[in-house]
Amino acid sequence: MISVFRFKLLFVIAGLIGFIIACNSPSNQEDSKKSKPKPTFNKEEITEPTLDLNSIDYEYLQSKVFEVGSVYDFTDSCVFYFECDCCSGELIFNADSSFYYSDYCMSDQTILFGKYFLEKQILHLNFSGIQVAQIYNYENEIDTSAIDYFMEDTVIQANQTQYKLELCNNKLKLKRVDKNFLAVETDEDPSLTIKYLNKEGFIKRYQKIKDSLANQVDFNYARSYVLIVDTNTNYYSLRDKMIQIGEQLSIEVDTMERTYYPEKNLIALPEDHEDELFAGDYYPRRYSKEYLSLEYLDLYQRPAGDKTIALVAGIYSNQESADSTLQRILEVDSSAFILQTDIYVGCIH
Fold first, then answer.
1. d(CA 292, CA 306)
2. Angle at CA 195, nearest 5°, toward 193 and 201?
3. Cβ count near 337 (within 10 Å)
4. Alpha-carbon span 293 to 284, nearest angstrom
5. Are residues 228 and 335 in the same domain?
6. Same domain (yes/no): 208, 93
7. Alpha helices, DSSP H only, in 220-278?
8. What local confidence, expressed as pLDDT, does residue 50 receive?
9. Is residue 7 exposed (0-12), middle (13-18) or buried (19+ Cβ within 10 Å)?
10. Which of 34, 259, 321, 336 is the most buried (most CB within 10 A)?
């Protein structure tokens, strides 16, 4: 009995050894590697862009719904992943150069209205200051006879912002120039969103407010805070100061493709510039952004004189941002100041 048991035990052990050797042979290891692909860790396949930024026009914008959110909620797949209840929004562009910006926060929705235009792959949004909100009525959770939502209208100071056109996985992405916000095109039908806004009364209420303010507010102007370092009629003196401050404080210098022509005594675009309307003439800086440039003061403060030049460090839509940069400038130049003004932000072409 013992010898038979030993024989069976030896047979089982030999079989196990043979199985282990076979599984660990080079050929089987190679087959195992082939059958088990390496994990990709959600590595995205980037599609070669076929969309040309130069082909983006008003018609393209009007055919899309753009989802808006923070850069921190934007994924490598060129979509948003929101983890909070007050993060997202939508942009809708209309054929009459107006737009609707829908801001979502929990159960509430606020619609902002304004005008837009494209300029050298920069999208300019001029907000009218009119806001129409649909607010959830929490009393409805206690009293079911109460209304679900109520509407609220607000009028604030008109303002403006800019988005730079970029590509992401062959989709149009709009990158806000002054804050960490993006907008990316979606496959949603804009006509359905507009139909919803009409049905809920957003657009009708906006138009009513706009009509009532028509004689009081010019929506082509935006309240702005212009940070001016110094003024002078001598171009070269201010140019040298601009370069010096730019190096001292690491602030970008942007000539906006303009240069100084002594024979004209004029800061202007080249005569052969693609902008036929302003070629050979001064093109004004009008929008909120922080960089150093030389502008004609008369644009922001009248009457300053046609040839008085201002060294501008930034244009801001709120005074707090302007004050913050002013403190930095004052460390190197005590002549800096902030000028509050209403800048024309309508179309100039």
1. 20
2. 105
3. 14
4. 11
5. yes
6. yes
7. 235-249
8. 81
9. exposed
10. 336
**Does the residue 178 lie in any domain?**
yes
In angstroms, the Cα distances linking 318 to 158, 161, 184, 224, 276 are 11, 12, 26, 7, 33
Q: For 74-88, b where at least 16 C-beta lie within 10 A, e where not — what string?
A: beeebebeeeeeebb
Same domain membership, residue 147 and residue 104: yes
**Identity of the amino acid at 149:** Y
Residue 106 DSSP code: T
Q: Are 145 and 122 in contact (CB under 8 A)?
A: no
Predicted confidence at residue 291, as pLDDT, reads 93
Same domain, yes or no, for 289 and 195? no
Other beta carbons less than 10 A from residue 71's beta carbon: 12
Same domain, 270 and 334: yes
pLDDT at residue 49 in the model:
54
Could you report the per-residue pLDDT of 234-282, keeping only the tens digit for each? 999 999 999 999 999 999 999 999 999 999 999 999 999 988 889 999 9
CA 212 to the chain's CA centroid: 31
Q: 197 and 240: one domain?
A: no
For residue 209, the surrounding DSSP H or E stretch is helix 202-213
Query: In sequence order, what are the beta bridge partners of 227?
Result: 314, 338
**What is the rounded distance in angstroms from the CA atom of residue 303 to the CA atom of residue 320?**
26
The letter for the amino acid at 253 is: V
Please name which of 168, 178, 166, 188 lies closest in space to residue 47, comparing C-alpha atoms.
168
Type of residue at 271: E
Q: Which residues of the chain have pLDDT under 50?
A: 1-14, 16-17, 19-45
